[in-house]
Amino acid sequence: MFRVMAGDGGEVTKALRAVVLKIKAATAARSPEVSEWCAVPRLVAVSKTKPKEMVIEAYLAGQRHFGENYVQELVAKAADPEILTRCPDIRWHMIGPMQSNKAKKVLSIPNLFLIETVHSAKLASLLDAIWAKAGHQHRLNIYVQVNTSEEAQKSGVAPGEVTQLTEHVINNCPNLNLLGLMTIGAYDYDLSLGPNPDFQRLLQCRDAVCAHHSLHHHQLELSMGMSADYEHAISVGSSNVRVGSVIFGSRSHEPQ
Ligand SMILES: *Cc1c(COP(=O)(O)O)cnc(C)c1O
């Protein structure tokens, strides 16, 4: 069974350090054209299905951003008294499907940093209204999720409709801060075939959104890349990688 040895050689600590080194190397190896507009990418440690002890170990090893994609699990971990006291500076990312009836719950968790999965104008307006009512001093960070692989079972707005949604967020949702775009993409893409087409599509969406709103590339983050392909994602310009299994071990079950 897993044992926690904070900061000194626990499995999670070791795996996390290896990932951080690979992110640094992949960042340093980027072409100047990519480096020019893309800062050092943020690592989101995806802790879904994993016990809070692993979150705490990763936090003590220096990790700050964590992602969950199941509402109940996110709420439970974010409000956990031990995580609250031992991880005061933790930053939570919601990376799973957002149902309207759970939105209020998610938006009320402590240390919420970012909703990565805004896929419709209706959801954006709902989040905007909930955030306004809660009376926060700062805007709520969001990514617009794009269904780059256009698979029916994947959530996200179609690539051709991204600017329509970002326009709605910018014009009609004053309590939301459009931080970037996110994609999951098709699983099991074989990188020996060339650059992942889902990431290329997200880059094109970024270009379209930036042109539409007169933004610079560095003003719109891109969330792409998971355990299997985060180094590749960084090489083509990811600014936010979501890495789970190579840090916390493979999952015996998927939430939902
Ligand atoms: C589970 C999950 C991840 C992490 O997947 P790994 O392959 O374990 O790194 C990243 N993003 C989303 C949206 C996920 O649901």
From TrEMBL:
Keyword Cytoplasm attached: no
InterPro entries in the record: Ala_racemase_N, PLP-binding_barrel, PyrdxlP_homeostasis
GO molecular function: pyridoxal phosphate binding
Domain Alanine racemase N-terminal: 35-251
Known cofactor(s): pyridoxal 5'-phosphate
Modification sites for N6-(pyridoxal phosphate)lysine: K48
Keywords: Pyridoxal phosphate
SUPFAM superfamilies: PLP-binding barrel
Family: Belongs to the pyridoxal phosphate-binding protein YggS/PROSC family.
Reported function: Pyridoxal 5'-phosphate (PLP)-binding protein, which may be involved in intracellular homeostatic regulation of pyridoxal 5'-phosphate (PLP), the active form of vitamin B6.
PANTHER family reported in the protein's UniProt record: PROLINE SYNTHETASE CO-TRANSCRIBED BACTERIAL HOMOLOG PROTEIN (PTHR10146), PYRIDOXAL PHOSPHATE HOMEOSTASIS PROTEIN (PTHR10146:SF14)
Listed name of the protein: Pyridoxal phosphate homeostasis protein
Upper lineage: Eukaryota, Metazoa, Ecdysozoa, Arthropoda, Crustacea
Gene label: LOC108672212
